[in-house]
Write a structure and sequence with these properties.
about 15% strand; about 375 residues; 15 helices; alpha+beta; five-stranded mixed β-sheet; globular
């Protein structure tokens, strides 16, 4: 399969070739979560993927606890379904254990500390009601004054399955992160025997065709070659242009390489661009160097013809004033392509800056 064929296959799985008529809950489940360390990133991600997306519907799902914000893949916060939170967190706990063991700032302070009573105390404290990080640090300092408070708090964040609760992550609202355990928030325990096989198959359904290294880049888990080999009777094999073996679900969509790919605006972090070891299917080897010349701050990336073509940011003229979407494009755009990107940009700007008195789009070529 060519890079372009891989591009179109993954864009189709990611609901980016054409907007899907799925609910936000169905989309998040299909995508095995959305990157969410920037709290409002999932709203941009879903606006670019779903027909008639309304941010208040996603916010309602968070309030109703059908969706949660929790640290899972790659040790980063994702927006996932409640059911997936109970599966993905125990599967990805080894990643968090490793991060804590290698933590550059707190590794020395935690050496030789018995963390079991610390974690038990923190669990009870956070399950009484959601608490902020400051609340947790103050409680730990009082209970364990002989230890480094910040290091203990960091250990609790790695070792406890914490969810950040609303209004954090609600469109139009801001708040300090407050957390409790996922078990307390959902009233259900973590899965005792979660299936890594099922999760890997879902990865191929949302990100494939892909290599074993790609699955590892997405999850940061080890030992995945054995998993993929075990799944071979349920998979189909391909090779990329360099002869590297790829795996995929037999009946997954694989559009023609010349299938149209309309412009799409992605958030600061989007799993589309973070979930493969080899990212050539979406960007050129020069992309990183090209972006070094883009004005900051970057608020997200722009896809044109399925590949990263630039970055976007919104400039505001005061509260409620004019809003301008600035698109710094690092790939040359024809007049027709520029018109297409600008048209999608105007629709996008009306979404992200709905309160603005006026909207404008400015395309800037980056040399």
């Amino acid at each position: 399969m060519s890079a372009r064929a891989l591009n179109r296959a993954t864009l189709e799985r990611q609901l980016l070739l054409g907007r899907a008529s799925l609910s936000p809950l169905e989309a998040v489940e299909h995508l095995v979560g959305l990157q969410a360390q920037v709290p409002l990133n999932p709203y941009t991600a879903l606006w670019s993927r779903l027909e008639g997306f309304r941010p208040e519907e996603l916010g309602r799902l968070l309030v109703e606890r059908a969706l949660v914000r929790i640290v899972v893949m790659r040790g980063t916060i994702h927006l996932v379904t409640a059911d997936d939170a109970l599966v993905l967190r125990p599967l990805t706990q080894p990643v968090l254990d490793g991060q804590l063991a290698r933590h550059g700032e707190h590794k020395a302070a935690l050496a030789g500390v018995d963390l079991e009573p610390v974690v038990q105390y923190a669990r009870a404290f956070l399950e009484e009601e959601p608490r902020t990080g400051s609340d947790l640090r103050a409680a730990l300092a009082e209970r364990f004054p002989e230890h480094h408070t910040a290091a203990l708090a960091e250990a609790c964040r790695h070792l406890l399955p914490l969810v950040q609760v609303p209004p954090r992550g609600i469109w139009g609202k801001t708040s300090q992160p407050s957390s409790t355990t996922v078990e307390a928030w959902l009233g259900r325990p973590l899965e005792r025997s979660p299936s890594i096989d099922d999760v890997v198959l879902r990865y191929f359904g949302a990100f494939g065709p892909a290599t074993v290294a790609d699955v590892a880049a997405w999850s940061r888990l080890t030992g995945l070659r054995e998993v993929v080999e075990r799944l071979q009777p349920r998979l189909r094999r391909f090779r990329n242009e360099r002869g590297v073996e790829l795996h995929d679900l037999p009946d997954a969509p694989r559009p023609e390489p010349d299938a149209p790919a309309p412009p799409r605006f992605l958030p600061t972090y989007d799993n589309l661009l973070l979930s493969h070891a080899d990212r050539a299917r979406f960007r050129s080897p020069r992309a990183h160097a090209d972006f070094s010349h883009v004005s900051t701050p970057i608020q997200g990336t722009v896809l044109h013809d399925g590949f990263v073509s630039g970055a976007w940011r919104v400039e505001r003229d005061g509260a409620g004033g004019a809003a301008t979407l600035v698109v710094d494009h690092v790939r040359p755009l024809s007049k027709r392509s520029a018109s297409s990107v600008a048209a999608e940009g105007r629709r996008f700007l009306r979404f992200v800056a709905a309160d603005a008195a006026a909207h404008d789009v400015r395309l800037v070529a980056v040399e």
